[in-house]
Amino acid sequence: GAVVSQHPSWVICKSGTSVKIECRSLDFQATTMFWYRQFPKQSLMLMATSNEGSKATYEQGVEKDKFLINHASLTLSTLTVTSAHPEDSSFYICSALRFAKNIQYFGAGTRLSVL
Amino acid sequence: RKEVEQDPGPFNVPEGATVAFNCTYSNSASQSFFWYRQDCRKEPKLLMSVYSSGNEDGRFTAQLNRASQYISLLIRDSKLSDSATYLCVVKQAGNTPLVFGKGTRLSVIA
After folding, report:
1. Which residues of B touch A34 (CB under 8 A)?
2. CA distance B93 to A33
3. What is the DSSP secondary structure assignment for residue A102, as one 8-state letter?
4. Contact present, A93 and A36 (Cβ < 8 Å)
5. A65: which DSSP letter?
6. In 3-state terms, what secondary structure has residue B82?
7. Which CB contacts under 8 angstroms, 24+ apart, belong to A66-72?
8. Dihedral (C-alpha) A39, B35, A35, B69: value to the nearest 10 degrees?
9. Which of A99, A112, A113, B16 is the most exposed place for a label (fewest CB within 10 A)?
10. Closest C-alpha to A36, from A10, A15, A6
11. A10 contact B CB<8A
């Protein structure tokens, strides 16, 4: 079964609204989680590294005030897309690092469509 | 220059064919190497890790050449179910993220 749960799997929203995506590690504690974004026919691009109890580290070109990341517990990280616009429509995928095994487990992804 | 480069394809092959994918990476600090498979509108799934000595998993064989920073994947006796995008992935040591290539699209045709 899945070891990382990501919710919702699909969301449609109006331009200007905010959308929250949750990523949970189900049977291990993840001090580090990663958020990726994938546009059609493109690679998975890392957006940010989420560390439990501290601020996320964002990749160059990713607006931290637009993509809010909260990693308040060892099993949950959230990504909030604030004031979403059509260009934010993409496939967002989280992954949790199981440090002891040095393996990244992926959530099933969230397909965001902003109208 | 992208950190991981792959031929995007598509590779259209008949069932039973052997197909090879290549990948190069630019960061010499990369320590771990993988091939992932991604189906349309799904998350990537680990196909196999890649070791310097080369490794095989059934019909799949992966090779790594650290000196030339080159990774390959060979699929023998292709099945229709092998149709997917194959992602070359590298990682540095520690709590660092996986870095993905753009992927190579494979279509196996009956």
Report:
1. 97-98
2. 16
3. T
4. yes
5. T
6. helix
7. A67/A35, A69/A35, A71/A33
8. -90
9. B16
10. A6
11. no
In whole angstroms, what is the distance from residue B54 CA to residue A7 CA? 37
User: Quick one: which of B108, B102, B59 has its CA closest to B83?
Assistant: B108
Spans in chain B with pLDDT lower than 50: none
Give the residue from chain A lying closest to B102, CA to CA: A43
Residue whose token pair is 């179910």: B81
DSSP A62: -
User: CA-to-CA distance for A99 and B73, rounded, in angstroms?
Assistant: 27
What does the block give as tokens for A33?
Answer: 């989680």
Q: Which residue has the tokens 């995008």?
A: B85
Q: What is the pLDDT of residues A54-97, one digit of tens each?
A: 889 999 999 999 999 999 899 999 999 999 999 999 999 999 99
